[in-house]
Fold each of these.
Amino acid sequence: MSKPLNVGLIGCGFMGRTHSNAYRKVYSFFKPELKPALKAICDVSADKAKAFADTWGYESVETDWKKLLARKDIDIVDICTPNNTHREIAMAAAAAGKMIICEKPLAMNTAEGQEMVDAVEKAGVPNLVSFNYRRVPAVTLAKKLIDEGRLGKIFHYRAVFLQDWTISSDLPQGGDALWRLDAKVAGSGVTGDLLAHCIDTALWLNGSIRSVTAMTETFIKERKHNITGKVEKVNIDDACAFLARFSNGSLATFESTRYARGHKALYTFEINGEKASIAWDLHDLHRLGYFDHRDDSIVRGWRSIHVTDGDQPYMGKWWVPGLQIGYEHSFVHQVADFLEGVATGRPASPTFRDALETQKVCDAVLESARSGVWVDV
Amino acid sequence: MSKPLNVGLIGCGFMGRTHSNAYRKVYSFFKPELKPALKAICDVSADKAKAFADTWGYESVETDWKKLLARKDIDIVDICTPNNTHREIAMAAAAAGKMIICEKPLAMNTAEGQEMVDAVEKAGVPNLVSFNYRRVPAVTLAKKLIDEGRLGKIFHYRAVFLQDWTISSDLPQGGDALWRLDAKVAGSGVTGDLLAHCIDTALWLNGSIRSVTAMTETFIKERKHNITGKVEKVNIDDACAFLARFSNGSLATFESTRYARGHKALYTFEINGEKASIAWDLHDLHRLGYFDHRDDSIVRGWRSIHVTDGDQPYMGKWWVPGLQIGYEHSFVHQVADFLEGVATGRPASPTFRDALETQKVCDAVLESARSGVWVDV
Amino acid sequence: MSKPLNVGLIGCGFMGRTHSNAYRKVYSFFKPELKPALKAICDVSADKAKAFADTWGYESVETDWKKLLARKDIDIVDICTPNNTHREIAMAAAAAGKMIICEKPLAMNTAEGQEMVDAVEKAGVPNLVSFNYRRVPAVTLAKKLIDEGRLGKIFHYRAVFLQDWTISSDLPQGGDALWRLDAKVAGSGVTGDLLAHCIDTALWLNGSIRSVTAMTETFIKERKHNITGKVEKVNIDDACAFLARFSNGSLATFESTRYARGHKALYTFEINGEKASIAWDLHDLHRLGYFDHRDDSIVRGWRSIHVTDGDQPYMGKWWVPGLQIGYEHSFVHQVADFLEGVATGRPASPTFRDALETQKVCDAVLESARSGVWVDV
Amino acid sequence: MSKPLNVGLIGCGFMGRTHSNAYRKVYSFFKPELKPALKAICDVSADKAKAFADTWGYESVETDWKKLLARKDIDIVDICTPNNTHREIAMAAAAAGKMIICEKPLAMNTAEGQEMVDAVEKAGVPNLVSFNYRRVPAVTLAKKLIDEGRLGKIFHYRAVFLQDWTISSDLPQGGDALWRLDAKVAGSGVTGDLLAHCIDTALWLNGSIRSVTAMTETFIKERKHNITGKVEKVNIDDACAFLARFSNGSLATFESTRYARGHKALYTFEINGEKASIAWDLHDLHRLGYFDHRDDSIVRGWRSIHVTDGDQPYMGKWWVPGLQIGYEHSFVHQVADFLEGVATGRPASPTFRDALETQKVCDAVLESARSGVWVDV
């Protein structure tokens, strides 16, 4: 018999939707011991919050997150607000003894992130940062293959996250869905928004990064700001690329941009090991590329693995072989793993502490882009 | 303000799951005027039904479908039972004035199907057969492109549905998930199970089929039967291929098998028109292949359209460009369209009458496979 | 030390070019014991023949093939003329004791083909029909994998050869490059021109075909004839599809058309065996698709084998791994194998006798298309 | 009527083969006004030279390149020897008034390259460096699309050249085919061997590079040396990656390695412009990826252009649409263009002067890898 766990979610944007959908689905597929209940939705706009509650079936509505945190009937606080609010809410939630799921990136910078780690660890509350791509089954399978030693010594890692939605200079910055273009709210541009995903996966799959050298660019220097109504300087990085050396001796290239015409959300990574290589691509997320040098030489080739079988990560919970799942399912897996971590006392990763490592790499990248020299992480 | 519509679903198998998931999701994404409520689940096994009710949140449980049909609080009867039960349940549901959603294929044969069509039309109840692949966004986009005349005159249609799950002779037939191998329950093998999907899509996209010539094969002649416990003759078609002529003058090849090693559920179709061609593939269902001869000759090529944009069918309701949906979403779209059809009085297709056309083609195919000559549909 | 072998080639069209290129290249890469010398080119047009001799380095020119055959200094007669001339030239060449390479299809029909087989066998001259696709390295590798038993029992074979160059009704028929549209010269349309390739490969890879049922269509009924200048009825098949049963119990579908918009020369085949499957595609001819069910289940997938390694068929003679060859090389391999067959007394396949089997299937296909019933080969 | 032009080629290795094949083929397909004749082959090994002459049809043999240069009957000197010999031979050939084709990279470093440029320009002899990938038709098509303005402003360029042939530590260095691993002979590792190709293409397609930051790695520190027989330090770069800023404001990442398991010779580049993007891949060199944002939004997607049509670069000279060419043909195109440049007085690119720009970037990359800071080119 499952025990209920009450969720209070803050933020009615895109991420609020993905998390709400995950809470609604997880029980039907994963039968967790702890069953999430959509208790309260919180947004500064009461109208938005009410509409969101109707859409997703939240039982109640709040407009002040402090009130939400004060409620005794809330077990999990889920932070889906813009980056510049993460620290304050998370610190308060920890102090209130709530479990916390926080959207990525963890914080505006490493200093903030460190405070947050200290807070949740002092409070002893379960905590997770939503780097959801780890839980795409093909990516989880990649982790499994590496951990089994199938790749052998790793020589190379390369990752890109390419988008093309900000190419038009008519696009304004700030407010609503466009806060990602406003450095005061987002902290950085593609580095925190997109590369943070690439870095999280990389650290998970390939261990720690030792040092980086980077460049950033802001192609469109000024945009109208939605809130002030004025044309203002754009302070985010539109594009960022960096070279890296991992502690295991492998070399890496990372790149992200919102000016790669033809790519909507093309997150790809490839890892080359002594014995085998793997490749993955968010645009066909249900597939994993795999090359195994141990195959007979005349029939060696990259395999395109359709990750939909019951013995592949998470897939036994869904449909039948051959039938693909999509983007949203990575969030369902995240909730399932978080709940299992709470139930078993073996916390799911990435915790705040894990996510702080990604934050440190992001900070080193941005510092290198300013200084022009290699920066140790 | 949405009005509730109470669902009573019969059958706790794979299709019961896909439909239940769709009812649970449709409101959050499509906000239909009529909002489905999971009122009752019915299965001959009370244990299964109870577990299913817990999993999906059904309010009540029945073990006799006749009782379900007798309930006043049920608006929609959803038939997810094996093929040999469709007719009886659907006839009774129509007589009870219920709206009906029925899994495909409509019936065991055309004669049964005709009775069912007559019954629902006489009763005047909304009815739909669950040929869900029409509502994969890429397939719906294909329909749109054809209807806009982008392909011009059609010359060729080809479709396959390839699986490999019955190659082992150790696999038994009959009972539970394996009723599809038992001709008494399934009616036919791949023809009704898989080719019916291909035919439904083809009739929708390319109009009626005039005549066919076919061959079938049963590769493994005997299998242990799960219910009798004895080795029994296998009476289904393991594989079926046919040639067809459409009324519009185009030629077609269709093939299905469960012995195509390497393909889990590879439903593909391609349509060649005078001006353009399209291709689709269930293993990467979020993409559509498109070739347009009107492109400048030096840059002409097959386009791989990542069908995840807001202006592509259904996709405005989901996430953001670049983030793919999966198999299950086709059922959500089906429910959304059915509900809109009920609300507006413009019924969603395929109705029982539409599905009867597919049944007729299936029957002609099986007859041709027996007789060795061309059979008019 | 290589011995020279003098080639007399008849026909300055497209195939004359591919064969001439092959003769010029074979020695540098394959070092055959017998080294072909371009002795004479023959064409009814003296101007064409002279220009061709200059282009390719032929030593002499003839305008009457009978004179060519009468020359003592010609060892190999290579027939690259339209189909309706194959029989007469080949019979005479055999009578003159020449080795013969003949373009495909062997003949206008089985009766002609039988005469040709009898003639070359009576004369005891080496003979080969130019079904060049067997000698694309990826296709030869497919043969090797099948012969090694890697696929196990074969269940399915499917092949298509799709083009789109005759869709315009403005295209005339007859004469020069367009004799392929003139049934009097070509014998048939896509059946002899394109399906003959598919059938040859199929017989080689999968054994004999027992019976077929077919349909053909001529989409554009009349075209201007280049020679008569008049609009005339089109008598070739624009498209042809057939179902087949092989002697080994496997089922097959074959299709060819020149009305498949978007495909220039898309010859593909796929073979599904109990243990493994293979797939190939002329548009990327240097790759072979391979799925092996014996791979670990979690990393099973279709492999894309880049057939450019030294241990793959023919490739040790060319460049280095990763560097692809193209269409023309299949003809070089054909000449190399023919020369080796002559030198060793173990004739290269397909001989005229082998090619007669393809002719029989073509005839059965066309007969079935007329009669509407299954025809035994 | 074509005039003969006598070729003297130095070096019987892999590049000697590709160039010889090109000279033998160019006339049959391109009918240049100047027709190359294979006059002399030169190698320090008389046995190798004789065998090579037999294989390719060279009329004479030399073992001392100075003698070759002294011959009056030699018009073109083609330098296919290891990198450390380019300068001396080229300087002497220029002094002797010969036309020069030189394998890439131009020189061991910029200083050498500058001398060579000065020499050929002073001598006024036609000169070309063999960056053959420019003349793969798909790459030439990319150039044409960019020059037509189809991409608009360029934001991003990324290129990799990935191989996996040196992963085994048993592989020795030095001598024969393995001089590429010996820094004294090769100058550098992947930077000069592979990245030089990427840089040449990039400069041609996207203009000059302003500055770079780089890292290199030698994964296997010692290897047996084939000539000395001793285990010696490996001084080449096994891998090199760099970030770059182009003069046009675009950002770039470049990477090359011989430790990318699964890639034999995967040279890829992608260019993202405001309006369109292009992508190419040496493993399928006959295709070009193209995305055009101006396409109707619902059917927008990456096009896979099969570059085999008569109106695409060079392809009108080869076979018919749909039939691919391969690696070797890029060299045929190079010779054809060189000969046309000589005939018309409009020299084909890249001349020594053009190739010097690539050398400068290579030097800047290696310097940055040593210094750890950005280096201006």
Amino acid sequence: MKRIADSTVRRLSVYLRFLEGSSQRGLTTVSSAELARHGGTTSAQVRKDLSFFGSFGKRGLGYSVPELTNSIRDILGLGREWNVVIVGAGKIGTALAQYDGFRPRGFHVVAVYDTDSGKVGTRWDGIVVRDFSQVARDLASQPIDIAVLAVPAEGAQDAVRRLVDAGVKAILNFAPVQLKVPPDVAVRSVNMAMELEGLSYELSSRAR
Amino acid sequence: MKRIADSTVRRLSVYLRFLEGSSQRGLTTVSSAELARHGGTTSAQVRKDLSFFGSFGKRGLGYSVPELTNSIRDILGLGREWNVVIVGAGKIGTALAQYDGFRPRGFHVVAVYDTDSGKVGTRWDGIVVRDFSQVARDLASQPIDIAVLAVPAEGAQDAVRRLVDAGVKAILNFAPVQLKVPPDVAVRSVNMAMELEGLSYELSSRAR
């Protein structure tokens, strides 16, 4: 399968949410124009996004809500459970561990790790904070799919090295640093300050 | 000024962090190859990204670290303070209000709002939780630049309507919903589950 742009994958997630909402409202078909409006894009782009993955919809009839919902769920790998660990039991890590939007989509937080002995052994919502020095041993007996990295910038690359050595192939990075990983490891980064910089850029460029 | 793609603005934020690190390590020049490596892109893309904003660097000499740092800070609107409010005193809102990465870049959290009378009046790190029903009155006396929306999906659009009515022109949205705003209001969305979907997509497409 050819390489699909991140922006396309993001729009699939948005289309999926709109389709799920449409289903709840009892709709059985949606048009590419409706998908476009909710995805912040054009009908042509919707058709192009979906064409990467097969032939969907009928001219003049739109897309079948249940069929397209299932197809996008399948494309995004949401037909199964994914085991997730959170590394870093600070403020962001705590919020993520308790975030209730993961479970309904099949992302199951199975463990939280920290290096701080004062935090190791404490419990949140039934999840015990484990000692990060034991991560390779733990993952040998309970493999995980995705690690969420919520550690300070200075410790991030070292934590990633250990996770990759332990076999982790996908990392969601909240540390404000560009991570170095082998080509077979997928990384997505979320940087809260950088998101705000996108807005300060917009506000400034309008004022010019 | 022509419209610059979000992806370009994101890379400017990454280049800026690399330049700041270079400065701390005592470097006075960097090459486009180094910027490219840290930005996960090519030298040609670095030159293109920077060309939107003027003429930087000298062939064979690279870019002056202090000069390019100042230029990017200026482009991103980081030469001033921005007043930020957080709407929603739940888990994500709490973590964001206490996030220590905003202040060093000039993003100053001046207030947190909630509609829950049990939370209004409580205090975190010196910031009192205010009653969201008073937001228009508060903003009339203390204008703010950016609102961070950390409320449940079902309340998000109504909260945005009130913020826009109160004059807010930039919103960082953590609610899992596509917001409708007037064209003069900038929105960026961060959806934690969608970020994980990007990774489950990657893992699934490799397994196909």
